[in-house]
Amino acid sequence: MLNVGNITVKRAKSVALNDVSFSIQAGKTLAVVGESGAGKSTLIASILGLLTPSQGAITWSGAPVRACRPALVMQEPRAAFNPVHSLRRSVQEPLRARKTNILTERLKRLCDGLELAPELLNRKPAEVSIGQAQRVGILRALVAAPPLILFDEPLSALDAITQKHTAKLIADLQAEEGFTALIVTHDLGYACAFSDEIAVLRAGSIEEVGTPDAFVSNPKTNYGRKLRDAAFSLGALERRR
What we know:
Strand content: 15-25%
Strand order of the largest sheet: 6-7-8-3-9-10
Shape: globular
């Protein structure tokens, strides 16, 4: 279980996260939603250990979260890879860091699950589509079988059709692999369709946490209600599966 306990993160003279707390049960998905500047990226950096909270703690099953070696799927697919290396070399990076050999059968199974032809990994990032690059990013996150994966706006660079397809692939792989997921997104429709709980982050503070159905039917805060109503007006919540 991931537990974020009362963390505060300061940047220069401002507070980026203020007394933030939540937990995610093993194998479940929490979506963190909020507008730009709410602190979503700071939250991810803190969980990864790139930022140190001035107070509070982040743990995985009671141990420091770095012990579980969480993986990250980045927002901009192609920027996540070294442009001069093959995608195969980039996919193998998490295994080299662990001094572990890649298992051909596992790689093939994951490629099948992500609808990727294995030979596509011989290409460089610029030689594949954005959608393919994002699926390779998910493959790299999965290859070492981490118990926790962080998704930073994983669909925002994709077109609408590819978004829906990729979201379904992530959900299917999670059901198969059993990893715990934290999804940071501004897409409330995606969050409601594919998460077990939603946390609303505003100006560095958690406004409310609840199930997608509870949030859609009756947000607990005025800010949550504004987010919900804006999503309805844009048709985002109508795309829920």
